[in-house]
Write the structure tokens for this entry.
Amino acid sequence: MTPAFSGSSPYCYSNSLAMVLGADAPAPSAIEVLTGSPFGAQFAQGGLPHFDPLGWDPDLGLDQAIDLLGWTCQRTSGGEAMEAIDRLRQASRSGPVLAGPVDIGLLLHQPWSAGEANGSDHWVVVLAVDNEQVLFHDPDGFPFATLPIGAFTAAWNSWLMECAGPFTMRSDFRRVRQVDVLAALRNSLPAAQQWLAVGRHDECQTQHGALGQGAAVERLATQILAGLDDRTLGHLAGFAVRVGTRRLSDACLWLGQVGELNAAEVAGLQARLLGSVQYSLVAGETQAAAATLRQLADGYGELRTALGAACGN
């Protein structure tokens, strides 16, 4: 039996939500599956490839997971910088605040930060705000991190990111229904199937030049053979492949836990395929990477069919 993966991975919003929910939180791996992130791939024309569904983003995923788990919260966004900081200060007095996206390029407590906005989104848990600094847990490995208010505000402004407006935060988390995590996961299956239906491979649908699911992965395979630019290669090798593989691996784990063994088997095979692309990309073995991605592309339809059977359609 293959053990479930445990270790470092860029699960910032799932880890942050788990911190905010506290003792009642399920494992971050379950939260990630509840967001819907494992169920697809997307590639915008002129943009970067991601192994999550077409039209999905972490902000939408958080709303989905919070609701499925039987919680509610206050979500606010926008406004002027000092107004947002005052809002954050007030909210943090009542409990931890899930803040994000923040631009990871501007998180100056991280020693590898370039100090320049790069549009890479990140989520943190704010604990307190005084007159000089923000105290927060950064799930990238920095508990009780601090930043001067101006530096935190610059990162939180998130002007390069499209998944939510600037100064977005969630606070005042309250449980409104008692929901077991396995029940929440089972209730998430129709949404997972719907995500896989958006822009699926057999229809090659596009959305503003974007492709979803197998069609997106086919485009990526073609581009790998043609030669990737440094930005796309760095994104894939440093982030997208490993987080996409972890998502599929966790989908395999939790689909098995709710008894959907066929869907779990498909997700597990998808995870193995995508995980094996990591070495091919780093080693420059473009033919092998493209061939494996084309196998991966075929699996999205199989996963959708398996989830359809689980949902009774």
